[in-house]
Design brief:
Radius of gyration: 22 Å
CATH superfamily of the largest domain: HUPs
Number of helices: 9
Order of helices and strands: EHEHEHEHEEHEHHEHEHE
CATH topology of the largest domain: Rossmann fold
């Protein structure tokens, strides 16, 4: 995948530095052009307090935008030297998600980079609103940055897969981003929730165990075929299959391997349809300590 153009969306908070540093690092590694974007989510034209300022709404908006542009330039200077192809920056007013999407489309972005939390420091404020809304309305990958870059590329990359085209795309992205020679860890979770429901029906336990064992063998075969047909360099992959509740297994596995990046599709196929966009992706983004790159494309 080409990373020729990256949109870095920032609210200029202290934690946003991490997303900016990662955007700069990716730009250096991939010789990318970066558009740094600050969106001011306010409509001052109808504010009832405007009469107290003696200024009209558009005048205040212009002053506010210019102030944010200056702050954005200072923010970018504070991130250190830019070693990518080109760095552009702008600030504007409007609905945050809609404006980011519009600018990303106009810019032709290959990737959108955002921070895990904004100025409010409330749990799920950005993950639950901005990131999710971005994913619902764009087919571009969205990188949610949680940790400082420490001037190093991603080394321990985890890719949970469900055999969908989005998982295939996530795997391809992982190999493009893995520049250190470390193997990319591919994880498939056999979802045991359906078996739990069968247990409650009173079906013979031995039969259930045989059914589950057969289903796991089939999934193991599907995993091997998926990797073989993915078109990526299999010499730099490690595959693992585990059984359990996908969000918990993915979170635990990411912690055990000390992943610094998790890449996953946000929508699967078949029995996984809508699971990744909902509970799995939401929980994984919120709970894993590493950065998360979410891929939402066409199956």
């Amino acid at each position: 995948m080409s990373l020729a153009k990256i949109v870095y969306a920032t609210d200029l908070s202290e934690r946003a530095d991490r997303a900016g540093q990662r955007a700069f690092a990716l730009a250096q590694a991939h010789h990318s052009t970066v558009l740094a974007l600050c969106v001011i989510d306010a409509d001052l034209r109808e504010n009832k307090l405007l009469h107290m300022t003696g200024q009209v709404g558009t005048e205040i908006e212009n002053n506010l935008i210019e102030s944010h542009r200056q702050r954005l330039r200072q923010h970018l200077d504070g991130l250190g030297p830019f070693a990518g192809k080109d760095l552009q920056s702008t600030a504007m007013m409007g609905p945050v998600c809609r404006t980011i999407l519009s600018q990303a489309q106009q810019f032709g972005a290959d990737l959108i980079v955002i921070g895990a939390h904004g100025v409010n420091h409330l749990h799920d404020v950005l993950v639950g609103t901005t990131a999710e809304n971005l994913l619902r309305h764009t087919d571009r990958p969205v990188l949610v940055v949680k940790n400082p870059t420490q001037d190093t590329p991603y080394q321990r990359i985890l890719v949970p897969v469900d055999f969908s085209q989005r998982s295939r795309h996530a795997l391809s992205l992982a190999q493009d981003l893995q520049t250190t020679g470390h193997p990319v860890q591919v994880l498939h979770v056999f979802n045991t929730a359906p078996m739990d429901h069968i247990y409650r029906t009173g079906v013979d336990e031995g039969m259930i165990q045989r059914i589950e064992a057969q289903a796991q063998r089939e999934d193991q075969q599907l995993l091997q075929e998926f990797i073989k047909d993915s078109g990526v360099n299999t010499a730099n992959l490690q595959e693992t299959m585990k059984a359990g509740y996908p969000p918990l297994v993915i979170e635990q596995f990411a912690r055990e391997m000390q992943a610094d990046l998790l890449i996953m599709g946000t929508h699967g196929r078949g029995r996984f349809k809508d699971v990744l966009l909902g509970g799995v992706a939401r929980r994984v983004v919120n709970q894993v300590p590493c950065d998360v790159l979410l891929v939402r494309g066409q199956d």
